Amino acid sequence: MCGIIGIVGKNPVNQLLYDGLLVLQHRGQDAAGIVTCDGNTFNMHKNNGLVKDVFQTRHMRSLVGNAGIAHVRYPTAGSSSAAEAQPFYVNSPFGIVLGHNGNLTNSEQLKSEMFRQDLRHINTTSDSEVLLNVLAHEIEKTSRNALLNTDMAFDAVAGVHRRCKGAYAVVAMIANFGLLAFRDPHGIRPLVIGKQDSDKGVEYIVASESVALDVLGFKLMRDVAPGEAIFIDMDGNLFSRQCAEAPKLTSCIFEYVYLARPDSVIDGVSVYQTRLDMGVSLAEKIKREWSDKQIDVVIPIPDTSRPSALQLGIALNLDYREGFIKNRYIGRTFIMPGQALRKKSVRQKLNPIGIEFKGKNVLLVDDSIVRGTTSQQIVQMARDAGANKVYFASAAPPVRFPNVYGIDMPSREELLATGRTDEEICQEIGADALIYQDLEALKQSITKSNPHLTSFDSSCFDGVYVTGDVDAAYLNRIEAARSDVNKKQRPPNSSTQLDLNLLSTDMVGAD
Fold it and tell me: What is this structure's pTM?
């Protein structure tokens, strides 16, 4: 899960890119980067950390230009070193920078092809650098060192679609040419396009979520279609073309459950409305299966589950209460790199309000259960606060399979639901009863808002990988790389950071 933005404006875009990254910070807390384009010169600054910490006034002053791209990251493929912060840069054939949200499932094969056939060097373990070099090679093939035009850029994207498997939403800048953005043929990761009128003409933006457009004053035009490429030249002219042979929208279902901000609209569906509807369908299941249970109060696990819990409480005619106060200066626990750190952070992040629990039968509602670290400790917090009974409801189905398309869901052995029945999971988290959302009900909560959205990547729930190239051997390989033990063995950030000034004399403003 990463956040990407690209803007072609009529005025300097550094502040717009920075503000957009702040809005998309929930999509990546590991690293941030901005590249602006000023004629033939790229100006870049990137590093590990939150957006507010990576960029200081001196960095912003160096990011001159009326076009640029930006990225926030957390690592699913590769390491968490500062060298793998995005955007990435290559100087051939024309000078290209790229930011990527997603994960390539055939990156190892592509790396081999890069070395043996394309004669390109990959300097990091990031699949995003692989994707950049595939794009650069395809542009080089289509242009044949001639003056690049829009058709050549679209032909290059078609070449990327033929070679790359997996999930990818991409923004790229080609020096002195324009902004190129595209989405994989399955449309797994989100990407939207918007525009605004300035006193000097129309300005365009592409971003991971529509909320970035709202905050920056752009009007949402539409989603970028699966397999589609968008090109905006430096004069602000927009072009688009379908570049995939058989595109089919299979949007990531976990975007609606957890990843996206509730005020975003993805593939024509309000994330907030979906989460409200998830609460309604979960309430209907509770009516069917828990008629013997007396529930006094519904309490959400902040923040993502609030809409579902609120609507569930209304549907069951139960009191809805805020029972936990969240420390907003602690990051998301399921993306933290070690189990011990995750356990410690749960206690730091949430604190119960005792009067909402004492002597009551409490129904806790969360968006999902991944490792169970948070769920187990929250149930214990509720008991310690005096709850009589603690019931637990998940607005999503059991997470039993790793996600290979850009979400850092761990190995199967680290997923609480893998190999366990609902009763065993309930015992593991210490609840008096546990109920999960049904997958079909979850899908209906989304399609209710957009009947044309009929297929989803729901692989973390059902183990069906829509790209068709994921087998047991691949899962074993990525699980070994993603395990907590392996992550502890990764090199420290400082030892692998690259000096961007060594890459090209065209790269200025980097440190």
Answer: 0.89
